[in-house]
């Protein structure tokens, strides 16, 4: 079976481009989600995919970074696929399926994936370093304002503004922080910050 997996990091991003690419293969089924790639467990559709795959399935992604943001997660996911007898094909990497020798095919795929993971990790570290430098310069100039507060009375996002007021109301009633975090799908830190405002 040919299975596709598509992911974007936030609710306002679009999955259509990735889905269209996978339809050209074509795949038999697509698992899609709008979720951060921070960890495996928070991605319900990826977990469903991992539970459903069988021997000889081929998992397609448009790019390896759709599967994971760091080398450790990617390695864990790819090893899991292998243990299940499935193979991974990323559309941004060469396809070695025409090579008849399975061991050679796997070796070449492993080399490419290892290089990709190294490049992705290095790029993330460079981005973080540039961000740190930019923040340090902005602080020196006195223009650094920090990250915008997503859940607040002045949030530009009406949905997040509404959640902010609902959280405030329920906190005043004494509803537990953990209960609110699960109900509204926001971090404990966000709720603690709002609680301090009351």
Automatic annotation (TrEMBL):
GO-annotated biological processes: DNA integration
Stretches assigned to the Resolvase/invertase-type recombinase catalytic domain: 1-142
Matches recorded under PROSITE patterns: RECOMBINASES_1, RECOMBINASES_3
Molecular function in Gene Ontology: DNA binding; DNA strand exchange activity
Keywords associated with the record: DNA integration, DNA recombination, DNA-binding
Pfam families: Resolvase
InterPro entries: Recombinase_CS (IPR006118), Resolv_N (IPR006119), Resolvase-like_N_sf (IPR036162), SSR_resolvase (IPR050639)
Family: Belongs to the site-specific recombinase resolvase family.
Domain of life where this protein originates: Bacteria
Name of the protein described by the UniProt record: Recombinase family protein
Active site: 9 (o-(5'-phospho-dna)-serine intermediate)
């Amino acid at each position: 079976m040919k299975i596709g997996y598509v992911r974007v990091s936030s609710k306002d991003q679009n999955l259509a481009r990735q889905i269209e690419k996978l339809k050209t293969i074509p795949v038999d089924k697509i698992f899609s989600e709008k979720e951060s790639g921070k960890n495996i467990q928070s991605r319900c559709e990826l977990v469903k995919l991992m539970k459903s795959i069988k021997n000889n399935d081929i998992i397609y992604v448009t790019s390896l970074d759709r599967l994971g943001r760091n080398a450790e997660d990617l390695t864990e996911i790819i090893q899991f696929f292998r243990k299940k007898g499935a193979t991974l094909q990323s559309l941004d990497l060469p396809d070695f399926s025409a090579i008849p020798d399975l061991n050679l095919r796997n070796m070449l795929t492993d080399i490419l994936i290892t290089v990709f993971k190294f490049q992705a990790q290095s790029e993330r570290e460079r981005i973080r370093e540039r961000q740190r430098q930019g923040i340090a310069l902005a602080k020196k100039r006195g223009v650094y304002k920090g990250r915008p507060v997503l859940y607040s009375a002045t949030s530009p996002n009406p949905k997040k503004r509404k959640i902010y007021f609902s959280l405030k109301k329920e906190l005043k009633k004494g509803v537990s922080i953990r209960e609110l975090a699960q109900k509204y799908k926001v971090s404990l830190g966000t709720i603690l910050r709002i609680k301090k405002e009351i």
